Amino acid sequence: MSKRFADGSLAVDDIDITIADGEFVILVGPSGCGKSTTLNMIAGLEDISSGELRIGGERMNEKAPKDRDIAMVFQSYALYPHMNVRQNIAFPLTLTKMSKSEINAKVDEAARILDLTPFLDRRPSSLSGGQRQRVAMGRAIVRSPKAFLMDEPLSNLDAKLRVQMRTEISRLQDRLRTTTVYVTHDQTEAMTLGDRVVVLRTGRVQQIGTPQELYDTPTNVFVAGFIGSPAMNFLSGNLTSSGVRTALGEIPLADHDEVSGAASSSQSDGSVLVGIRPEHFEDARLVDPAVAARGVTFTAKVDVLESMGSDKYAYFTVDTERAANDALIELAADSGAELGGGQMIARLSPESRAARGEQI
Ligand code: ATP
């Protein structure tokens, strides 16, 4: 389905995905890529300009939001300040024909699942951000809808609480197995929560896959640079008969034929963009020489060193000439990747003796 706004802008360009029953799907991408618009079309809060939305096989395009049997959780929680927690959670049920005792039983069950029982009589204003978020979740789960839609539900929480709520959402999903579409711009949330992740950019789907698939086999430079933290390093290279020549040395390629086949279809001069994940660097002094001989050893000066406790992040600059191929430079710049002469980052083990200003 697609969304063209009244001003003519195409916010969502032909997104096509089938979500399985009980699946947790994440829409991720940078600001303005069309995540919220997609979610709002599913919810019925935005009209669908073209294409079709089906839920349980039934066309939903013309159905009012209340008739779609889906519950939405917003970033702002959207709780009623004058109602206590019990009334807030019960609210969607009070609009149905359900009896009071049935409603109470459902609210009690939701509160139990979400650890909200002690707070049922409190007003939202007296709750912490995480507790308010759980009330918003409670209001969604109490309806036992066909699907949950969540729009950046954790973005108002501080970093620690966000991690805690992330695991709570995972646990909730394991328990309820309700089909969920979850919007975030945070690739860590996408990687940890999603059964499958849809990477969007300027309204277009870049790749759909499991978190591991996106990580291991990104389909383009954008996905490669977007998924993974710290982000993948990029530098230009030239294909040789068995590997690729870069400013770090000649890197042997196990899948050389495949790479050169793909490269020759797009870059006839053999120039390629090489992506290296930060964790694929090691401090050569800690590596068995026999193992090191199979890789590439290079020397670089550490510009900045960050000790993270479990890792050391070493930033270094590669002494390289700019890529000869303008198309590659554009491709990299367009995807936000640093190329040639740009700073690189290596994620080293805490045992590494790398130090600022020293060679590694
Ligand atoms: P964010 O993470 O910043 O919320 P997003 O990925 O959710 O971004 P959307 O809110 O879906 O992005 O917006 C997608 C594009 O559509 C943006 O370029 C936005 O400016 C545009 N847009 C959103 N609402 C409207 C509107 N009512 N009229 C015109 N353009 C709109």
Average pLDDT, to the nearest integer? 88
Instruction: Please give the share of residues in helix.
Output: 25-40%
Low-confidence runs of at least 5 consecutive residues? none
Sketch the topology as an H/E string, one letter per element: EEEHEEEHHHEHEHEEHHEEEHEHEEHE
Beta-strand segment tally: 17
For the record, give the distance between the C-alpha atoms at the N and C termini, rounded to a whole number.
51 Å
Q: Strands of the largest sheet, in order across it?
A: 6-7-8-3-9-10
Question: Roughly what fraction of the amino acids lie in strands?
Answer: 15-25%
- CATH fold-level topology of the largest domain: Rossmann fold
Bound molecules: adenosine-5'-triphosphate
Structural class: alpha/beta
Query: By CATH's scheme, which homologous superfamily of the largest domain applies?
Result: P-loop containing nucleotide triphosphate hydrolases
Reported for the largest beta sheet, the result is: 6 strands, mixed
**Gyration radius from CA atoms, angstroms:** 25 Å
- How many distinct folded domains? 2
Question: Which CATH-level-2 architecture of the largest domain?
Answer: 3-Layer(aba) Sandwich
Q: Number of helical segments? A: 11
Shape: globular
SSE inventory with pairings:
Blueprint: E1 3-4, E2 10-12, E3 24-28, H1 35-43, E4 54-55, E5 58-59, E6 70-73, H2 85-94, H3 100-113, H4 129-141, E7 147-151, H5 159-176, E8 179-184, H6 187-193, E9 196-201, E10 204-209, H7 211-216, H8 221-226, E11 233-239, E12 243-246, E13 249-252, H9 256-266, E14 271-276, H10 289-292, E15 302-307, E16 312-317, H11 326-334, E17 343-348
Parallel strand pairs: 3-8, 3-9, 6-7, 7-8
Antiparallel strand pairs: 1-2, 4-5, 9-10, 11-12, 11-14, 12-13, 15-16, 16-17
Helix pairs in contact: 2-3, 2-4
The protein binds adenosine-5'-triphosphate (ATP).
